[in-house]
Phosphatidate cytidylyltransferase
Amino acid sequence: MKQRIITGIIGGAAFITMVLLGGWVFSLFISILASVAMIELLRMKKIAPVSLMGIVSLLSMWLLLVPTHWFELVVPLSFTKVEVFIFVILVLLMFTVITKNTFTFDQVGFVILSSVYVGFGFHYLIITRDIPEHGLYLVFFVLLLIWTTDSGAYFVGRKWGKNKLWPDISPKKTIEGSIGGIIAAIVVGTIFYSFLPIFPSYLTALFVIVVASIFGQLGDLVESALKRHYAVKDSGNVLPGHGGILDRFDSLIYVMPILHLLQLI
């Protein structure tokens, strides 16, 4: 527990500092975190990061991760990132034929899904921080909602939790805890909005709060399902007492793309 607290304080302080700094420093910091998260996924699949499949996976993830203006500086062509990614997918599918299924369709699917999951998740975190005027507050707002949801779900679940939410994936989570987490997020999010009205109306803010809280919990379940599938307890050990980067950012990288795709941010 002592190690967990120390890691939490140091890691939390470092992350908050980077969020406050913003700009290329924050983008570079997030790029490093995303790279570590991708390596954690590769190791779950028992793929060496320094291998053909490992390098292709990292390059695909970076393609989706980096801000568009970074991509345009490196690749001064008329192709968009998505177009290049589609081309990469077609090349990977071609490899399944060339290698006579040594490089399998299952492995291609892993590369694609992992790249989208990690790359787009952290990409939208960078994009959110870069939003003029409100970017800093939006990142803190979503972080606060996720932390509040986790805490509310934990304490309500311990006190009143009886009905399991999804026992096959996460046996300790309860329906009561999940509802308690959403209510806690609404309360804390409303207080935050009353001091910093960063949305056009409270109704919009409330929608963001509920979506972030619900999908933050789903993001946690997605990562739990991944770990169960690959029979690992934690995604990694880079954060002593907390596991890996994916263990700590699973909710955030799931929520951020959804908020953007729903045009709430």
